[in-house]
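Throughout our pipeline, every protein is held as a single compact record rather than as scattered files. Such a record has a labelled line for the sequence and another for the backbone structure tokens. This encoding replaces a full spatial description with a residue-level series of whole-number codes. For reference, a complete record is included directly beneath this paragraph.
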Amino acid sequence: MSLRLSHQPFDLQLRNRWAISGASAAVGGKRVHPVVLVRLEDSRGGFGLGEASPSTQYHETVATVSRFLSLVDASKLSFEDLASSAAYLDSIRPMSPPARCALDLALLDGAARAAGVPVHRFLGLEFTEGRHRTSFSLGIDTPEVMAQKAADAVADGMRLLKVKVGVASDRENLAAVLGAAPEATLRVDANAAWTSREEALDHIRHLAATGRVEFVEQPMPPTLPDADWIWLKERSPLPVLGDELYQTWEDAARCARCVHGVNVKLVKTGGITGARIALESARALGLKTMLGCMIESSLLITAAAHLADLTDYLDLDGNLLIRNDPFTGVNCTAGLLGFDGVSPLTGLRVAERADL
């Protein structure tokens, strides 16, 4: 049974100004993040929902997502034949991974709803309640603001804080967060800000000396040669994870040489299907795995949570950073993610908006 496709842009309103290293920090960050919400529906009223969260960091915008969606012939998609639907989507050019992600989510959501099971069970996976704890991200800001955000997060029960770095005030910011959240464990994300292996090692040694940092994510640009990454991996006192370094499963072999673990995001890999392959490929090569996110609603966060049992770490907090979440999805209680008590009990377990 062929499907009908509808989609609309939606602006996620951030609770606080958001900035990471690079251009966003230079302009003081942003308070709005645009996404595109997708719905696939069949003639019997069955439906599935998806979300694209494009990032200019990966050269994607609402325009590139909308262009891809405009090329889709929804009559070639089906909840009953996911394999042929996926093959068709993979044939469309130019590719837009966030748009491909939204459609993958919607197809799996619709198929799982029809089967009456959660997506993880539809895929033959489990979700272990009480195991999966997400970090909470602190965007770059002044030391005073970052300290307040850290204190507020800890007051809400968050034990893992992910600190964005990559500006001149990094060490002042770090000291402020450490002081405001003395019992929290930190993860640090440089978003490729440190441009040489020597600079990266100097920063990582400083982070390690605090005794509070679990690992460092994407310390250098992915364009640096493997030799530089291997040099840093051999000398780093902290585990190094790749994010921009790991786009899809095809990067697994390089990452196994260059880093200790990888950050997988649905919007990079084209959805749950691609993210699962990326996670399993990395694990097969001995890499630690983390599921990450962009600024996203509970729809995308919930979709990723169905893969949580394939991970060592979670950074699924995009929905916690916004104040106008259009969906209700996976629970987050003091950082622990869970599906207990969430309704409806099928598909992505997301309460759909009436106007989508």
Observations:
- Confidence is low (pLDDT under 50) at residues 343-356.
- The CA atoms of residues 13 and 32 lie 5 Å apart.
- The two ends are 21 Å apart (CA to CA).
